[in-house]
Every structure is written in structure tokens, then in C-alpha cells.
Amino acid sequence: MISASFLIGSSIGDYDLLDCIGEGAFGTVFRGTHIPTGTGVAVKVLRLGATLEEVREFENEAQLLARLTGTTNVVELLDSQTTSVTNPRLLGSAVPFPIQFHVMELADRSLDYLLAHRDKIPWTERILHYRNVALGVHQMHLRDIVHRDLKSSNCLLFSRPRHVVETKVSDLGRARDLTQASGAQLSSYSIGRGDPRFAPPEFLWMQGIDQGQAHRCSDLYGLGSLLFEVATGQGLTGIALQPRLGIIAADLRLPSSRWPVKYRSRIPEIRNWFDVAYQVFAAELPASIRTEAVALVRQLCDPDPDRRTPYTRAGNSTVPNNDLNWIVRRIDILGKLLTTISQGRHS
Amino acid sequence: MTLLNTVLDVNGAFTMQLGTSPAVPSSADMSHAHLVSYPAVAVADLITLQSRIPAFRKSQIVDPGHERRIAYETHEREGIVRQARRLKEYAPESVTTVARLAQALLLTGSRDEAAIEAREVFRLHAREALEKYKAASEMLSWNAPSLYVAAMVLAGSGKASEAEVLLSKTHGRTGPLNLIYAALAEQRRDHAEALARLSSSVDPETASFRGYLLLRLGRFGEAIHNLRIATRGGSPSLAVLMNLAYTHAALGYPEKAVRSAREAVATFPLNREASSALCAYLSAVGEWDAASSEAERSMAASGGYDPKFSLILSQALLAKGDLHAGIRVLRRSVQVPSSLVESGPLADAEGTLAFLEWRAGSRSRSSSTDVVLRLLRGFGGGSIYLARVYSEMLDRIGDFGDLPVIKDRLEKQTDAETVLPLTVKIGLLAADFERATEDARRWTSASPLDPRAAGTAIILLSDAMGDSGRAAHLGLDALKRMPGNSGLRNDVAYALVFAGHLDLAREVIRMTDDATAPLVATRGLIELAAGNVSKGLQYYDDAARLGGTKGQDHADPGEFVSMLRIYEAVSIHRLGLADRPEVEAGLAELRIPKSLEDKYMVGMLRPAAERAGMAWPGD
């Protein structure tokens, strides 16, 4: 991969690129300045030599962020452009080459950085960050957009006046607009992409499908996994399934026509495999929210995607497909439990 | 009579007798019932996805799923590792960030680098522990998730022993850390140490693991207590249900074992292990039809061509006495294109088919041996099952074939306990009956649900070692666990006769309505011991007619009859009936054919004959 880091110190469009603050699978993020106003911004530059699929995903991200403008908990897109730069040092000639970039509001850092020292972060604050992310995903789902790659490194923190810190969902590269026909290959949905330590188990068996409810359910898993990460600093799937990678690999050596049945047959076992991870999780939680938090993660991360939403006894979903208010309410209960106990201690 | 239902069992696919020949498909056994270890599997499978990806070969049809996965791994991994490195650079002293990097590196195949970072997690934790301990004297349970990840990464990088050492130095291990610590001891088969490492915690996971370890140590009563605790969570795991079934069977309650196995199948209807265990327990209680139905159901659920289920179905058919139907099932299963099925079970099915065809007389012994040896060489050293099939074809003292080499290879892959059936067989082929008896007793303890283990120990104790009392005791214990196994009943009745418990022998043999040649002969033995000499001899003649008839599972009916007559003569001497006029003619005619002279079965009988003062024919 050709890194775009040579751009540090140069300008593209109306933006000065000051330093590199992040590198992902298909791009580099710079801290920059909007030259006319002097405002700090984040500039995400698509890597040079990106594949057609990556270009499509990059453009898709801009379109989706534009559709989500005005939402409180999704990162705001300020600009998106294609420009050209020349760099004789890199290419050996002064021929200009195109650069695609997005400009977004500048965050202080991402949530994973905060979790690096999570023992210093009070639980009430952690739950608040988590609630903000859940709200962001809720806002996306209400607009028929699914994220498909939720993890702490894709959640950004913004300092606001009066010591308020906002948390917003970012990195919509793998997001999907459910109102539009898919532009990607079907197989890219089966595996889901992203980091396997945080991916829903069905993606590891390549059972993701390009269907609205399936996408929403993968986000539910992402939210459950994020609460696990907020508590432990590690990925739920990584802890639960790393010891089983041999089994997964063996299942995937079967002809792909047999993978769906294989995955369905594994679901009860996978539930058991997750139990150890839930023990790790429970040990990290304050006693006041332990039962409630484990129950929430258990539900959101059920290996059977259809069981991640609340169901009535008759098997009907009790909430509209795109409404995640029920999760926000349950997070509020966690917050309430934390503050009640804490107040009780003080009194 | 004797007829050794021993020595030849091939992991229970069928029970055979008399070394070479007359194998009567008798009751199936519970060899498909086995312990399920949750954490042991976990640690053993700590390997990266990447290392398991089959290399592309030229002219190979490319499955788009596989192609996608490989593209995914090469494309995405750089980003995952880069992100983890950045995070570590930001907080190099945080065990969280270092553990994340370690796991990212392992997932993308950089095992050595992953191990370095995992060690760093332990180092940072130790330092932090020291500081905090000095500051607040508080005991520690923090960093558990990161330590858990680091231990898994080390084990996954092939450094399990190092993970174990590092965990041993970690203070304040929480439940999950203790689980992985115990699992590492279990991985090197130190069950007692693993058990000691589990805290007194009563959570279902720990109880399940403790139950498994207690089973491995043969402490069934304590095991069942722990396994019951493990079921209290409401949704017991497959391992718990299957181990519960195993414990019930081992304690001599096969009906309860069936119940637990049925629950496992109901909860995990598509699980192959659960289904095969249920078939085994159903067979153990003599419910052959139910066992066949379950095998057929599972086979249909798995697409109709899973060779593992073909083996189980053929076993059920053999147990019902239909050798040819069993062969037909296996023939169908080996015709499935190998690309559609797993190579291990397919090799097992093919080897079993070759073996059964020999038993049915439609294939020569050498051809069957060639097939099995080819499979053993082709399948990474072969399975223990296949090695046992091969060992069944060796029956002459001094003729070890490739068995010692195969045993050594399998022992390196597994452990000494797993290859005990092969160790016993090598002892028999070396005519070292004392050693074989000791090994057979260990085998019986290690595999309490394997009728072949118990049968071999019974016959060795009774004939070669002359300790029929102990043989009968061991046999009655085994019979409690496997009451439906008519072959085992035959062996136990045989030992009981020479231990002087005639009524009990009669009772044991009455419980089976099988009319196989060995059982008919054993009825004759009981009559002889009861003093009904003419009636006893009549039973022996009936058994000889039955066993000598084509259609029974005897590769060589003539050999079977000769063997039967040797057993008859030795038994007459052991019972002190050699001077009775009714037996005079038969004893005078006794000859040991040259083809039987060096059979280890005959060798095992010789010490019994010597003790009874019998002049060995031909000496």
C-alpha cells in the first residue's frame, strides 16, 4: 500500500494537512486546518492505488454522512472533494495524480484511546459514552442506514464547553444505505469485513447476507460488543472465538453450500463458547449493573441474529425494526443503577 | 467355552471373536460415547485462521467464499495491525493496548511478534501489580481480560508452556484466568494438576470443566455432582450433557445415559457427536432399531453422505446381525466424491469396509490389509480407529506388521492412554501376556465404556493369568455399564464359570437371547461345569455347526471350529472332566492345525491348559 503520509505539510484544496492522526485499511486521516477560517478539521484521504471497491466505499461514506447531516451522534461531514497533487519525490515526475478526500469535524480522539486507561474512567462516564454511540446508531437506523463495523476505534470523542464530552459514530466506510440497491459484490456482505475480533460470529462463518434486518442485527451485535469493549478493553468475538478458530477453519473447509447448515448447527455451541467471555465481562463490571449489563450483551450478541431483538412469546418482534430506543432505555437503566448505588453510598 | 469376544473390537464397530476368524457381529458398544472436553479443545485449537487456509492448487475449482476470505485477510490485516500499533504507541504502558496488538498480530499470522507482545502484557501486569500492591495492599483481579487474551495468544503461537509459567506467576487469577490456566495443564494431560488449579468457584463453566477432569480421573461420583451444577444455568452445553450421559453409563445406568444423550440431541439436533453418542448408548441397552433410526436421521440431516454416520449405521446393522446390510451402507458412503466429505471419517469408512469385506469372505486378508495400510499412510498417520482396524488383522505371535510404528506415531500425536488398545495388542503379539494383562486393565480403567477393553482384560486374567475370580469381578463391573453387550456377557459368563459362580454365569448368559456360536458354546461350558456333560458337549457340537456355517461373520469357518474344539478341550481339563468317558473320544481326536499354532489366541490358552495338567497336542 502506498501511504499518503507524504502529504504531511502540504495542502489539498482549502486545507493544510498538519499531521497524521490515523491510518485505516483504505486511507489515512490527517489533522488539518481549513485555510480561510483557521478551523481545525480531520481530513480523510483515500489511499493511492485504491481498488474500485474501495473507491466505491469511500464515496459511499461521503454520501451517507451527507444524508446523516444534523444528527447529534454521528460525525459531521464538512466537505468531500477530489483534487490533484504532484509529488516528484514520490513518483519521480511532476505528473499530477488525483486525491480523494473527506473533511470532517475534528475529534479529540477515538474511544479506544480512552479505554486504554479505562480503569481511570468512572463507570458513569463510560456508560454515557456508550449511550451516545447507541443514540448515533439509532439515528442511523431511523434513516435506514446500517453501520456494520461498530467498535471503539470507530467512535470519536469531542470536547465541548463545560467539560462536556460528546461521543459520535464515525467511519461509515462499510455502512449501507438500505434504501438503495447494493453496489458491492454479494460476497462482501457474507464476511462483513472489518476486524474479526469485533465481528458478529455469523461473519466468521461467512453467513452475513445483504438484507435489511440482517444488517440491523449485525449492528445490534456491534453495540453489544462495544459494551463488552467498554468494560474489558478487548473484543468480545476475539475472546470468545479465538480459541475456536481451528473449528471455524475446519467448518469453512467444507463446500460453501454447507456453511449455512453448519453455522445453524453450531449456534447452541457458540452460545456456550461465549459464556467464558461473559465471565471475563462480568468480573469487570460494578456489582450494581452486573446482571443487567450481562443480560443486555447476551441478548445483543446472540449468535442467532434473529434473537438479538426483544421478542414476544409468540415470536413477534416487540419493537419496530429500525427503532433502537429499547437499547437506549436499557442503557439508561444501567446509568440509573450506577447513580442510585453511588448516591446510596454517599448518603 | 470361551470364545473371546475380545481382542478384536474396532473401536466398537463390531465385536469379533477368536482372533482370526469367527467374528460374530454382536452387540455394539459405547465407543462412540466419549468425554467432551470444552477447554482442552479450546487451547488445542488456538491457531490462526490463516494457518489453516488450504493453499490454492493449479487446476482447482475455486470456491468464491474461500477466495473472498483469502482476499479479505491479505487486504484488511495491514489496517488492523496498523491501528493496534498506533494505539500501543499512544499508551505503551497499558496492558489493554498491548494485548490488543498481540491478538491483532496473531490473527494476521505474525506469531512470533504476537508472542513478544503477549509476554509484554504479563511483564506490564507484574510491574503494575507490584506498584499497586505496595500502594494499597489490595489483591488484584484487574487486567484479567488482557491477561486472558495474552495467554490465548501465547498458546496460539505454540508457546503453551510459557503461557502456563507466566500464568502461574500471576496473582489474583479470576475465574476465567483459572480456567485457561487449568486448560493448559489439561492440554499436557495432567488432569490432576488441572483439577487442582480450578478454584472452588461453582459457576457452570468451572463446574463443567471440573466434571470433565473428574471423569478423566475416573472419579465418577464427584463428576456427576459437578456436572449437575453445570446444568443449573438452564441451558447446559453439549459437553455437559454428553459428559453427563457418559457418567451415567460409566456408573452402570445406561438408561439414564440414553436420557441425557437424547436431551443433547434435542438441544443440538445437527450435532454429529451427540447423535453418535445416542446411537452408542441405545446400542448398549439393546435398542438396535432406535439406534439405526437415529443414525439414519442424522445421516439425512447431514446431507445423506456423512461417512461418520454411515459407520454408525453400519454398526447398528452389524449389531442386529446383518453384516451384508452394514457393508452396503459403507459401500454407498465411500462412493461419495471425496471433495464433499471430511477425509478422516471417509478413510475410517473405507478401512472398515475393507475389513468387513474380508470378514464376509468377499476380500482376501492381504488385500484388506493393503487398503487399511494405504489409508493409514495417507491420512497423516491415520486415526486411532483405523489403527485398531489394522490391529484386528494381526493375530500371529511375532507378526507385528507396521503396528509398532503406527502406535509410536499416534502416541506422539496423542498420548499413551489413547494408544492403549494398540499397546495391548503389541503385548499379545509378543506373547507377553503378563504385560498385556496389566495394560488391558489400565485400558479398562481409561475406557470404561469400551467392551473390548473389558473383554480383553477378562480373558487375559482368566486364561493367561489363571485369576478367574478377578476376571469375573472386573467383568461384572463392566457389565453394569454395558448391559446390552452380549459379547461382554459371554466373556463374563466364561470367567464366572471358572471362578465357580455357576448360577451367576447362567443368569448372565440368560439375559441375552442371541444364538451366536460363541454364546451357544458358553451355554455348553455352563452345562459341563454343572456336571451335565452330554448336554454340554451337545451345545458345543451345535456351536460348531453354527460357527462352521457360511453366512455367519467368519472369515474362515474351519478355523473357527478348530479353535472352538481347542477351547472345549482345555475347558474340559480345567473343569476336571478329562477322565469322563463321554469326552474321551473328542479329546483323542483333538489336533491343533498348523494354521493355528502361532495364533496368540492359542498362546493365551496354553498357560490355562498347563495349569490344568493337559498335555498340549503335538508336544
Tally of structural domains of chain A: 2
N-to-C span of chain B: 23 Å
Architecture (CATH level 2) name of the largest domain in chain A: Orthogonal Bundle
Question: What's the CATH first level of the largest domain in chain A?
Answer: Mainly Alpha
The assembly state of the depicted protein chains is heterodimer
Might you state the CATH topology name of the largest domain in chain A? Transferase(Phosphotransferase), domain 1
Distance between the amino and carboxyl termini of chain A: 59 Å
Rg from alpha-carbon coordinates of chain B: 28 Å
Short description:
The complex is a heterodimer of chains A (347) and B (619). Chain A is of the alpha+beta class and 347 residues long.
List descriptors.
heterodimer, A: 347 residues, Phosphorylase Kinase, domain 1, globular, B: 619 residues, 32 helices
How would you sum up this structure, described in words?
The complex is a heterodimer of chains A (347) and B (619). Chain A is an alpha+beta fold. Chain A has two domains: 4-105, Phosphorylase Kinase, domain 1 (2-Layer Sandwich); 109-346, Transferase(Phosphotransferase) domain 1 (Transferase(Phosphotransferase), domain 1, Orthogonal Bundle), CATH 1.10.510.10. Helices cover 44% and strands 18% of the residues of chain A. Chain A has helices at residues 52-67, 88-91, 111-115, 123-142, 187-191, 201-204, 212-232, 236-241, 245-252, 259-284, 287-300, 325-346, and strands spanning 11-12, 15-23, 27-34, 39-46, 77-85, 97-105, 109-110, 145-146, 155-160, 164-169, 176-177. A six-stranded antiparallel beta sheet of chain A has the order 1-2-3-4-6-5, covered by helices on one side. Chain A has a three-stranded antiparallel beta sheet with strand order 7-9-10. In chain A, helix 4 packs antiparallel against helix 12 and helix 7 (212-232) packs antiparallel against helix 11. In chain A, 48% of the residues are buried. The model of chain A has no long low-confidence stretch (mean pLDDT 86). By secondary structure, chain B is mainly alpha-helical. Chain B is built from 32 helices and no strands. Chain B has helices at 38-44, 64-90, 95-107, 111-136, 144-156, 160-168, 175-187, 191-197, 204-216, 220-231, 238-250, 254-267, 272-284, 288-301, 307-319, 323-334, 343-359, 365-378, 384-392, 403-413, 420-429, 433-446, 451-464, 468-481, 486-499, 502-510, 517-529, 533-547, 557-574, 581-589, 594-597, 600-611. The longest helix of chain B is centred in the first third of the chain and has 27 residues, at 64-90. Chain B is elongated and about 100 Å long. The two termini of chain B are 23 Å apart. The relative contact order of chain B is 0.10. Residues 1-73 and 136-140 of chain B have low confidence and may be disordered. Chains A and B meet through helix 3, helix 5, helix 9 and helix 10 of A and helix 1, helix 2, helix 3, helix 5 and helix 7 of B.
